[in-house]
Amino acid sequence: MSDRSFNVLFLCTGNSARSILAEAVLNRVGAGRFNAYSAGSQPKGSVHPFALDLLERMNHDIAFARSKDWAEFAKPDAPKLDFVFTLCDSAAQEACPVWPGQPMTAHWGLPDPAAVTGTEAEKHLAFADTYRMLNNRISIFTALPLASLDRLSLQRRLDDIGRTPALSEQEPLA
Fold first, then answer.
1. Enclosing H/E stretch for 53
2. Distance between alpha carbon 121 and the CA centroid of its chain, in Å?
3. Rounded to whole angstroms, how far apart are CA atoms 132 and 126?
4. How far does Cα 94 stand from its chain's mean position?
């Protein structure tokens, strides 16, 4: 891997919450080194309003945010993908398109904030928690020494990032 810019696709079933948040986070955290995209196997057709609200509150430009089918990224004129990360368990179990160039893949499963029931505050908190978890994982990913890792070592690191526990699951600092 070199110092060039890398294309990363985040996949979820609906492409309305987690993958949209991940796209926004990586485009900010990895500015210049990474180009993030998101898609879904069965896109909802719209981005969840709580995801848009959170991104605006975090000062992200939301002009990019649209729910799209992963088939867009399997076309010949699509960006050549270097990494593909699934964020929900159902997308990880589905038969994915064949990605040209054999990008590195990993599963970074997270609970679906759009599935949370409860008060408005609890729902907003679920989106904020998902954003924090994605920011943590993406920050670890962007800090990897990509140029000095062989493919097997990099795959191991990508898989480890996907096992990074949620903040609420981490042991308290002593």
1. helix 49-57
2. 24
3. 10
4. 17
pLDDT in the model for residue 91: 53
Give the tokens for residue 127.
Answer: 């989106």
Q: Which two tokens stand for residue 121?
A: 């505050």
Kindly report, residue by residue over 124-163, the tens digit of the pLDDT: 999 999 999 999 999 999 999 998 999 999 999 999 999 8
At 39-51, the pLDDT tens digits run 998 999 999 999 9
This prediction's pTM: 0.90
Structure tokens at 4: 């060039």
Q: Which two tokens stand for residue 26?
A: 């990586």
Residue 10, H or E segment: strand 6-12
pLDDT digits (tens, 9 = 90+) for 36-88: 999 998 999 999 999 999 999 999 999 999 999 999 998 889 999 999 999 98
* Structure-token pair, residue 105: 């893949």
Alpha carbon distances (Å) from 58 to 16, 28, 92, 108: 17, 11, 28, 22
- Give whole-number Cα distances, 112 to 29, 132, 155, in Å: 22, 13, 25
- HSE on the CB side for 34, CA within 13 Å? 24
* Residues assigned a catalytic role: 12, 88, 96
